[in-house]
Amino acid sequence: MSFDHAHLLGIEPLAPRDITTILDLADQYADRGRSAAKYGDALAGLTQINMFFENSTRTQASFELAGKRLGADVMSMAMQASSIKKGETLIDTAMTLNAMHPDLLVVRHPHSGAVNLLAQKVNCAVLNAGDGRHEHPTQALLDALTIRRAKGRLHRLNIAICGDIAHSRVARSNIILLGKMENRIRLIGPPTLMPAGIAEFGTEVYDDMKKGLEGVDVVMMLRLQRERMDGGFIPSEREYYHRYGLDAEKLAHAAPDAIVMHPGPMNRGVEIDGELADDLRRSVIQQQVEMGVAVRMAAMDLLARNLRSRATTETVMA
């Protein structure tokens, strides 16, 4: 498998063949995850450090499990109580990390671009676990794998992304990835939750949920990002659910075999009806969690291969 990237910082730098390479390998890891042979040695002898400057449950646990299943030495740093809180700069943190000689660095940060900055300062592979409103590449990849396994393909589908588009790095990464794979993308939500310059995204935009969902194959709901809001973006949660929360009545406008997705954590009764979220005939939300481990295993495996390849080349040249 060819994956010529030193880091995984976003979907934007990836070509369709890169996306397919990650998903093909993740497919294998997903199947292995359901067997007794779920552990491997692709990261044996390597050190993985997880740095989460924002709280996370699914993503951090998923990266930890992925690293351990591949044989890495995994260390998670409690960044909320770190030296950053004492005034240390991100660059100083990078220098400290360099002295520890990690091989893989997984970073989530509240500021867009912070992960890219770290990648320029450290001598290891960096994986972006979400930076501000910028990108969340592994979430988009696991969503893509979930869609591909459910639908049998990842091209020429009608996909609706619904809710808080403006504040969502998940939406941004999915728009980029699904666009690269030749899908028709619809963004549905109130005008107050649409980003500036939405016309440049190459998507269709709707503020009517029922019209936007007409005939779609995939319905991807998003969490209201209240921690990123600094004003009155919605009149009330009750009104938001009435107009934009996914329920059986609104879903009836989609294709009969449309699947329902949500990156989590869910606000039941705000973004999605609880019974619909748990309906295994339509909802693939649990599969998204499962595919997250597989995708992160694949991404770290491919980056580790590049690390070892470069180390071998440097040894031969020396």
Automatic annotation (TrEMBL):
It is an enzyme of class 2 (transferase). Keywords: Pyrimidine biosynthesis, Transferase. PROSITE patterns: CARBAMOYLTRANSFERASE (PS00097). Residues 157-302 form the Aspartate/ornithine carbamoyltransferase Asp/Orn-binding domain. Pathway: Pyrimidine metabolism; UMP biosynthesis via de novo pathway; (S)-dihydroorotate from bicarbonate: step 2/3. PANTHER family: ASPARTATE CARBAMOYLTRANSFERASE, ORNITHINE CARBAMOYLTRANSFERASE, MITOCHONDRIAL. Belongs to the aspartate/ornithine carbamoyltransferase superfamily. ATCase family. This is Aspartate carbamoyltransferase. It comes from Pelagivirga sediminicola.
